[in-house]
Amino acid sequence: MYLNFGVPLALTVIGIGFVALMFGLQKLLAPNNPYPRKLIPYECGEPPTGRAWINFNVRFYLIALIFVVFEVEVAFVYPIAAVYLDWVRRGAALAALSEILVFLLILFAGLAYVWVKHDLEWIKKVPE
Amino acid sequence: MRTLVQTLLASGFFGRNTPYDLVAAIAVFVLSAAVFLGVAFPFAGIVSWVERRVWARIQSRVGPNRVGPNGFLQWLADGVKHVCKEDIVPTDADPVLFKMAPYLVVLAFVLPWAVMPFSSALILADLNVGILYMTAVTAITVVGVLMAGWASNDKWSLIGGIRSAAQIVSYEIPAGLSIFPVVLMTGTLSMQGIIRAQGWAPQHWFLFANPFTFVAANILFISALAEGNRTPFDLPEAESELVAGFATEYSGMRYLFFFMAEWGNLFIIGAIIATLFLGGWQFPRVSNNPVVMNVLELITFNVKVLFLVFVSMWVRGTLPRVRIDQLMTLCWKYFVPIAFANMIGTAIWVAIWPEGNPVAGYIMFAAGIVVAIVFIRRVVFYAKRSQMELYYYPTI
């Protein structure tokens, strides 16, 4: 088994080594002639107005919050899904099914809540 | 893998007292390097040429045809050009994050090849958590892209990076939920186990196993396109509005690695769909020779994957880009509820027919053929009509 899990490790080393090798090759072959005008951020040819690390739209933050809830749920459902067929074959179909249903319905209530609160709309209308 | 190591030890190539673990480690490393340099890297290059030729064909152009026969070596020429380009790191950028981002993106492209089931014997590591591992490592992309967008300290990059992050994380939910129907039906997460649970004939594929899996396959394919930043979901690098999105400040090799990973991910998207829903490498048992069988299975798997890669190119050449509010509405208001319903429906289906319903496969397959015929007739009809228009009104 440890042999199998060695493969991702080997691929990590190969991937990072390959990228580093290519960067080394570029350092040898490519010209290097930086000057200040070349190194300013690109803003369509105009001099940049201020830095780019600014406040961005809060929608992205909300999407990330909703994502965290559901991704954790997806991670928790994997083990149940993997043993579900065994339970059905052992005659415990109803128990397994009701467990999955209860878990999913609680999570679906979360989605319904976000939906009712209009947080899935990109442009949220504030009630008067 | 174990038999290979024992054969190597018995051949006496490594000397008599070499420990088993050392030989095993060397074998793992050499095989992984062979898969990366022999399959993943050339595929990512060649598919960039194929894609440009396919688009050119769709748009009545010629496409790259100068370097090598029919432009076949274009990808090598592009690589050489990028190696010889000056590497610019803007003064305002965060240098560490800026240089780290391509490593993470390439890592997310390299790691899925560990569980790529090319045939019944050709797989680097048949992990018992195969499909979970696949979803986990492909999700590393979002870290790299967000890092690139933030570290560049450029407004285009920032907008591209956070758009990409929002899009990839949103579409991971329907993609993850669409994998569950297959896991519920097989009771295993291993890639080879999922393929062995299907048959070579289309009515035994999970695509046609029941109505829920058919919908799940379509949701998974569309979500995978969105996760791979492919048109019609290429908002993060929308040329007409965001210059080059998160890659605006990148040049030379660093820029190339982002797009190498994007093109390479096409194969991974195709492989996930082919494994879960299209029967993977399954081929009728025509020979008892394992070598012949493995070659046939390798060809079957690659035909299925390359067809899906072609479909994604076709989609990219045909459809316009969606707006970001449409993107989010499609994901959260349509795909997530439908994927939930799919999962519950499949759970009930499995509770009623634990070994699968054989009649449903034939009915679904027949319905699939009808849908395909209607689609092809539509395409032919509109192709003919546009040709007629060109014939009668050649100036428009």
Q: Mind telling me which CATH architecture of chain A this is?
A: Up-down Bundle
Portion in beta strands of chain A: under 5%
What composes the largest sheet of chain A? Answer: none
Cα-to-Cα separation, first versus last residue of chain B: 62 Å
Mean pLDDT of chain B: 85
Structure class of chain A = mainly alpha
CATH hierarchy class name of chain A: Mainly Alpha
Principal-axes shape call of chain B: globular
Strand and helix order of chain B: HHHHHHHHHHHHHH
Task: Report strand % of chain B.
Answer: under 5%
List how many beta strands of chain B DSSP finds: 0
What fraction, in percent, of the residue positions of chain B are helical?
55-70%
| pLDDT averaged over residues of chain A | 82
Concise summary:
Chain A is an all-alpha fold. Helix content of chain A is 66%, strand content 0%.
Task: Explain the overall architecture.
The complex is a heterodimer of chains A (128) and B (396). With 128 residues, chain A is mostly helical. Chain A has a single domain (2-116), classed as NADH:ubiquinone/plastoquinone oxidoreductase, chain 3 (Methane Monooxygenase Hydroxylase, Chain G, domain 1, Up-down Bundle), CATH 1.20.58. Chain A is 66% helix and 0% strand. Chain A contains three helices and no strands. The longest helix of chain A has 32 residues, at 58-89. Chain A is flat. The N and C termini of chain A lie far apart (62 Å). The mean pLDDT of chain A is 82. By secondary structure, chain B is mostly helical. Chain B folds into two domains: 1-84, no CATH class; 87-356, no CATH class. Helix content of chain B is 69%, strand content 0%. Chain B has helices at 2-10, 20-58, 74-83, 95-110, 130-138, 140-151, 155-186, 191-196, 211-227, 239-242, 252-277, 290-318, 324-352, 358-392. In chain B, helix 4 (95-110) packs parallel to helix 11 (252-277). In chain B, 48% of the residues are buried.
